[in-house]
């Protein structure tokens, strides 16, 4: 089913409101989800509404959170999300970071006690659109075994950074620190297909090609990805005094419980380092130099990070967003699931 972004937004916001979220929060959450679908990151778009709605209806997302913000210094602050929608808290916290960075040059905002926040690109883009550099890191539930280990300890702990060039193009790095997202394993299970032996490990810590035997996901670049996962966990978890590493709750463990996740936002004003116009001009120059490079065999050309998502966004805005039929049927129905995601073991054989 192909939908305009406005229609998709309305359907998602209606469903989240029906589940119990206030309209103002449902609208912001739907903004973040539409942003992901437009970019082609469907793993973090409409596909998640079934899960979010079940969680909201069961009380695992606070529908009346008391958001608080405390400026802890000229360049720092702590935003407490009171376990409301993570998407909403992360957006509002980035607004605070932008305000502080414009005033004082740099801002580091800890976002604590939040639920799942979705695609980090949304939040760093907020800063990039203001001519600032946005960086975000966050925890997610334990799914990845440390290098040399057998048990999941860190999450897919993503990292994102965005900055704008003089002509408005945005460089966007936004990546999970595992070789593949969990959704890709589920996809292989549903297709009864094998997975490459570089994606996941079985319960003994050996590479597996059977998606039903997956017991943990492999970090990107071996020990380097594992080091990045711990870095994200230190900066967005331990630093903020929320549960860390293997103590982070699973997304599906108990949908009535608070998640208490952490996220860190860093905002930098380039004009504190050099002439901002020159900085943005050089961003464009490096994008152009990359685009003009002779491509390696099998590639049409070199893309700068975020370029393909930007092309997909433009296309989806003009032609509509493709949504899986079952998800569309769910969105237009009256259904709020009661027991589809609750207490599910992510690694249980599919
Ligand atoms: P991905 O694999 O689609 O892309 C990763 C990065 O590689 C991006 O910066 C992209 O621009 C770049 N890239 C990919 N192909 C490219 C190409 N051919 N040329 C140039 N650059 C290219 O992203 P991934 O790792 O699957 O993450 C998807 C989303 O999941 C992200 O938005 C992330 O924030 C989100 N996420 C959120 C979590 C949460 O708990 N909130 C947990 C994990 C991921």
Description:
The relative contact order is 0.17. By secondary structure, this protein is α+β, with helices and mostly antiparallel strands. The chain has 10 helices and 11 strands. The longest helix has 19 residues, at 86-104. The chain has helices at 5-19, 23-38, 49-58, 86-104, 121-128, 182-190, 223-236, 276-291, 307-319, 325-332; strands spanning 2-3, 68-73, 76-80, 106-114, 133-138, 159-164, 170-175, 200-201, 216-217, 261-268, 321-322. It has a 7-stranded mixed beta sheet with strand order 2-3-4-10-5-6-7, sandwiched between helices. Strands 1-11 form a two-stranded antiparallel ribbon. A two-stranded antiparallel ribbon has the order 8-9. Helix 1 crosses helix 2 and helix 4 (86-104) packs parallel to helix 5 (121-128). The chain has one domain: Ribosomal Protein S8, Chain: A, domain 1, CATH 3.30.1370.60. Bound molecules: 1,4-dihydronicotinamide adenine dinucleotide.
